[in-house]
Design brief:
The complex is a heterodimer of chains A (about 300) and B (about 240).
Chain A (H helix, E strand, L loop, with lengths): L1 H6 L4 E6 L3 E8 L2 E9 L2 E4 H14 L3 E6 L2 H12 L1 E8 L5 H11 L2 E7 L4 E7 L2 E7 L10 H8 L4 E7 L2 H4 L4 H4 L2 H50 L2 H12 L9 H15 L5 H20 L1
Antiparallel strand pairs in A: 1-2, 1-5, 2-3, 3-4, 6-10, 7-8, 7-10, 8-9
Chain B lengths: L8 H21 L4 H18 L9 H31 L6 H21 L5 H33 L5 H26 L4 H9 L9 H33 L1
The chains are: A alpha+beta (about 300), B mainly alpha (about 240).
Chain lengths: ~300, ~240
């Protein structure tokens, strides 16, 4: 897919959403200009982000959205995610906003201004010091009007982050697809992931086996208790014998072996107790096995 | 009435109870394991061996000999059953088939009958010898069975059937007294058969120890009666336990 995007000169971004993380790949003119992966507060970029994205993709359960954007907007978003932080969480009322905008104009900054309160937020993308467009929560597109952003800026407690980045043309100079051997990353990740999965699967099997063995041990103990209640202590030995003749307590998982086990117990029990008690005991054992194995 | 001249009340009670034990034991072995079949068949054969007392042709020597032999086979089959039960109580293993028990017992009985018929008709003395062999078997195998029953009881003492084995133990104690006292009288030639034999050849036989003889006869009668009662009671009890 990356080759296709590269070949098609794609500009925009790929947004990956995974159960516990997210990732973004920025493309500009078919070049992968940046990669970002976020897990909680940990951020990875570049090679590491691509490697982690490969991991997450292999783990499955994620979704991918592909957005085609203008070159400038990609730059703005790049600034938002990767840009150098000039100001972070500054209270707007403490800042000379006019002076700040003037400074941006003079320095011909490319980047993004994020204005936010607890409930609202707005983005202003800049290109060479001039506002490129406005984006705020609730809008579906870049707007040319600053009115909504100004409203948010006027809200009490509004804060501002100022992030700058390289120009779109400079960003174009980077192409992670050229710099990084994606195929190799993918393959090695795949091998590592498969190995991890196999290990996990093996551990899970061992865990299941231990749990199942524990469940069967409890079932065997209970069957012995039932036998002791109806036949006396010889009942315990009888259950032991019948199970060992069928290869141990694992036989309780096999319907055919269970039938043989119960028939063996019944045969010997005829010499130890009454037919009515024998039937009662046999039914109890049968139900106990059925409920525990299928329950 | 002459045919039943030797028949006493005790004998009648004995035969009735042995019959009861025989019938229940047969019923008991139906649908049950082979071990019970051996034990049950043994008890049923005692009835057969005792029933000759009621048979009008019991004075026919060959038939009397066969009855004594059946009595011997009875204790052997029964002992075999208890031995198998003991093995079962230790290993919980049961094997073999009922048919083999029935056919085996029938084969031994028929072979004994053939043996009796191809040989000269038994005299009183020969019959007495056969009876002694029967009594000796009963005495020693009863002792073995008492020990076996004790061991079985220790293995299964907290199961339902355990009390049934105590009853079996009591039965064999009674049988030991019954058959043992008769064997004692026979060994010292104080039994009625020896007396008849001596009479038949015109000899005089003086009994020097009348006290011991009378006591043994009493033990024989009481033991016989109690063994009949106890075996009937044991099977009724077992029937209730295993119903």
């Amino acid at each position: 897919m990356l080759d296709k995007l590269k070949g098609g000169g794609f500009t925009g971004y790929l947004n990956f959403i995974f159960p516990s993380s997210s990732g973004i790949l920025f493309f500009e003119g078919g070049k992968l200009i940046s990669a970002l992966h976020e897990l909680d507060k940990a951020r990875l970029s570049g090679f590491e982000a691509i490697a982690e994205l490969s991991n997450q993709i292999l783990a499955g359960g994620g979704s991918l959205s592909v957005y085609r954007l203008s070159k400038d907007l990609v730059m703005g978003l790049h600034a938002l995610l990767h840009g150098e932080v000039l100001f972070k969480g500054q209270e707007l009322k403490l800042i000379d906003i006019k002076g700040l905008l003037e400074k941006m104009k003079v320095r011909q900054l490319n980047g993004c201004l994020r204005i936010y309160t607890e409930d609202r937020s707005a983005l202003i993308f800049y290109k060479e010091g001039a506002p490129l467009g406005f984006f705020h929560d609730g809008s579906n597109d870049i707007e040319t009007s600053a009115s909504e952003s100004q409203k948010i800026a006027g809200l009490p407690g509004a804060k501002i982050d100022v992030l700058s980045t390289k120009s779109a043309d400079e960003l174009m100079l980077y192409d992670l697809l050229e710099m990084v051997n994606i195929d190799k990353i993918w393959d090695s990740t795949k091998i590592r992931y498969t190995a991890q999965m196999e290990q996990l699967s093996k551990e899970a099997q061992e865990r299941d086996s231990v749990q199942q063995n524990e469940r069967l041990r409890e079932l065997e103990d209970d069957l012995k208790e039932v036998a002791v209640a109806y036949l006396g202590k010889v009942g315990r030995t009888l259950v032991d014998k019948e199970l060992s003749e069928r290869g141990g307590r694992d036989a309780l998982l096999n319907a055919e072996e269970v039938t043989k086990f119960l028939a063996g117990v019944e045969k010997s029990s005829k010499l130890l107790t009454s037919l009515s008690k024998l039937k009662e005991m046999s039914d109890l054992m049968k139900n106990e096995i059925f409920n525990r194995v299928n329950g | 009435m002459e045919l039943f001249a030797d028949l006493t009340t005790i004998s009648v009670i004995q035969v009735i109870f042995w019959f009861l034990a025989g019938v229940i034991s047969f019923y008991f072995s139906i649908g049950n394991a082979r071990i019970w079949t051996s034990i049950s068949l043994g008890f049923f054969l005692i009835f057969i061996s005792q029933a000759y007392l009621l048979a009008p042709w019991s004075d026919y020597p060959r038939l009397a000999a066969i009855h004594y032999i059946i009595g011997t086979v009875a204790i052997m089959v029964m002992t075999h059953g208890f031995q198998e039960y003991y093995v079962f109580s230790r290993t919980l293993e049961t094997g073999g088939s009922k048919t083999f028990v029935y056919l085996g017992t029938l084969a031994v009985t028929l072979a004994s009958a053939v043996f009796v018929f191809i040989n000269p008709e038994p005299t009183y003395n020969v019959l007495r010898n056969i009876k002694m062999i029967e009594n000796a078997n009963w005495v020693f195998l009863s002792l073995i069975n008492i020990d076996m029953i004790r061991k079985i009881y220790l293995q299964i003492r907290d199961s339902d059937i355990a009390r049934g084995f105590i009853a079996f133990g009591a039965v064999f104690v009674c049988i030991l007294l019954w058959k043992g006292s008769e064997l004692y009288l026979q060994v010292f030639c104080w039994d009625s058969d020896w007396h008849l034999f001596m009479q038949s050849i015109g000899a005089y036989h003086n009994v020097d120890y009348p006290g011991r003889v009378n006591f043994s006869i009493m033990v024989n009668q009481v033991g016989g009666l109690l063994s009949g009662l106890s075996v009937g009671g044991t099977f009724i009890y077992l029937f209730r336990l295993l119903r």
